[in-house]
Amino acid sequence: MLVSFIIPAYNAEKYISQCIDEILCINRDDYEILIINDGSTDKTKQVVKSLIKKSNKIKLINQLNLGVSASRNRGMAESCGKYIFFADADDIIEPMHVAEVMEFLDTSQNDYDMIIGNYYDVDINNNIIKSYSLFDKIIDDKSKLDMIFLGDFLLNVCWGKFLKRTIITENNITFDYTMKYGEDTIFIGNFLCHINKFKCINKYLYRYRQFSDNTANTLRSKLTCRYMDETEKLIKNKRKYLNSCEKQKELETAFINYYARHLSATVNLALKERNSLTAETKSISEYLDRSQMRFILDNVNMNYGIKRYIVSQVYRTIPCRIIYIMLKHIWLSINNKLF
Amino acid sequence: MSDLISIIVPVYNVEKYLDKCIKSIISQTYHNLEIILVDDGSSDRCAEICDGYAEKDSRIAVIHKENGGLSSARNAGLKIAKGNYINFVDSDDYIDKKMIDGMLQAAVKNTADIVICDYTTVDEYGKLCCENLEQFNTGEVIEIGKHESQMIYLTNCSRRKSFVVVWNKLYKRELFKNIRFPVGRLHEDEAVTYRLLYEAKKIMYIKKSYYFYVERKGSIMASAFNKKRFDLFDAYIERLKFYKENNEKELYKKVVFLYMHMLCQYAEWSGKTGMQNKGEITQYYNLLLDNVKLDNIDVTIRQKIELRLFRHFNIYKKLWKLKKG
Asked: How many CB atoms lie within 10 A of CB A63?
């Protein structure tokens, strides 16, 4: 068995059949599709059962609602393929390119630990909205991979990649079920610590479905200061990864700059949320005051993002948002950005 | 639905892209296809690739012919096509697996003669060349009137290219009775598509990108500016004559102004590339003045001034440049 496709499904009746059908387009016998039904209350189970009649490559595992991390862990435990490919139930793979990668893995002399590729953002009707290419970043050695993992968002997800199972099992890498956000980034971080040989190919392997009404909501809820513990864990985990890398100095700068941007974006987004003003202010200051966040803000290069850094610092000391906006205007006009 | 659909693919030296193209056609969800691969005298492995696919799929027919150009390849395909509907796919592009199904459903449901879908521009690796706006991908099927279908390309509408290219459309075979692609000329789409749209009794437009247009560095349109590009103006003159015969005064007027605009654009481009195509530009400038009689057509005062000014081409060019900004 070459590849196990692991798909956690919770109330996915609308899109899961398309997801599975696209994988079944791959005309090979050496893969299995594991659907983990995470206690769905809709017709997900029936939809999958009817698809099982079409092909015996599909295996359905039912469990009580335990969350996406537990589902993925269960999938890994029950899988038997040499490589694991995670997918979300509402996304779609590109069968032609995934089949090409499987052919490559099957016939290659080398034993790859990971294969990564490009992906598309698509809308609810599977129309391509945006393309993301890892290949442009010319990732051919580990240090470039580290740079992307620490300084960019492109490697933060666990889907769309071929991951070698032995690395996961031998190092006991699992998804942290206590986290509501960022658990896949930590998983990838732990995985990348142990890889040796990998390849980045210039093919679009995966289509990530964006829900236009919900994206704003989910993005907001993910980036707001509610996820303080998760964000701290993420920064801590990435710092641990950083310490195990070579070329630490430039990686550290990239990493800190990336997180400074992330934090300022979070603060901006939290400000846009029209909840009780004082409550939001308090939670934002609390968010920025956490030790890991403080580490980022204290170490961000003064030449880069000086505007954001100072503004975020100023905001923390002045509780009124109106004054914050005034200062922002003044700052921008000083920089001649308004006129 | 049991209609046979003929898909004509003109092939010339695209071995790098051909596999993906043919695979995307044979994996269509609609199966009743006649796939005609026209090998236009390729010097690379395209001929073998085509024959290889023909052996494995009985729906594929291959024509090997001497090199005659894109138009002659498409005409050769049209000659043997038996389907009720015809579709063209360029050999370096690829299509969504639901394209024929989606377009045929719209055609049958609305008894349309032509169905047009939208396209996404990608590079040879699949990366998007420009953002795909959601508002153009609603999946809506709307009817386009005869006059509107002619006008869309002549205005500044953002999807205007969808109405001039040959390949994102499903045509009823009867439309090609008296129409063939002009052999040996560039911009064959400009010369043909509007006539097909004019012949059609009903045209439907699907707001969905089923077709992937691959922008590659070696293609005809991407290569350096050369003399053959002036074939565009021959197409425009033909279009002017066509509209005159059919008494389409407004469309006639639009083409005249488009002609003037493109002439200035070409003058600018040839200036930039250093190839002074002054001969061609003068030739086509004179051609327009010879062929166009705008005396009895409704023109606004501003347009009258513009036409007068056009006689002094250098001044007109400078003003055009200013207007462009």
From this structure: 13
pLDDT over 60 at B133, yes or no: yes
Say if the Cβ atoms of A129 and B132 lie within 8 Å.
yes
Q: Is B17 on the interface with A (CB under 8 A)?
A: no
Q: Between residues A246 and B171, which one has the greater pLDDT?
A: B171
Q: What's phi and psi for A273, nearest 5 deg? A: -70, 125
Task: Provide the strand spans (E) within B231-285.
Answer: none
- Token reading at A87: 């997918």
Q: How many CB atoms are located within 10 Å of the residue A331 CB? A: 16
pLDDT band at B48 (very low <50, low <70, confident <90, very high): very high
Exposed / middle / buried, residue B193 (Cβ in 10 Å: 0-12, 13-18, 19+): buried
Least confident piece of the model among A55-69, A206-220, B78-92: A206-220
CA distance A178 to A194: 23
* C-alpha–C-alpha distance, residues A89 and A5, integer Å: 11
Distance between CA atoms of B129 and B136, rounded to whole angstroms? 16
Contact B34, B5 (CB under 8 A): yes
Amino acid identity of residue A232, one-letter, is E
Residues B28, B56: contact at Cβ < 8 Å?
no
CA distance B285 to B95: 40
Q: Do B209 and A96 touch (CB under 8 A)?
A: no
Whether residue A48 is predicted with pLDDT greater than 80 in this model: the reply is yes
Cα angle B212-B216-B221, degrees, rounded to a multiple of 5 = 100
Beta bridge pairs of residue B34:
B6
B122 φ/ψ sector (left φ>0, alpha ψ -120 to 50, else beta) = beta
Selected residue with higher pLDDT from B278 and B196: B196
Could you count the other beta carbons within 10 Å of the beta carbon of residue A66? 16
Contact B125 A133 (CB under 8 A): yes
Q: Which residue of A has its CA nearest to B209?
A: A127
The phi-psi region of residue A121 (left if phi > 0; otherwise alpha if psi is between -120 and 50; otherwise beta) is: beta
Q: Give per-residue pLDDT as tens, A145-193.
A: 888 888 888 889 999 999 999 999 999 999 998 888 888 999 999 999 9
Q: Which of A127, A129, A204 sits opposite B126 (nearest CB)?
A: A204
A56–B contact, CB cutoff 8 A: no
Nearest to B113 by CA among B165, B160, B173: B173
- Please answer whether residues B46 and B18 qualify as being in contact, where contact means their C-beta atoms are separated by less than 8 angstroms: yes
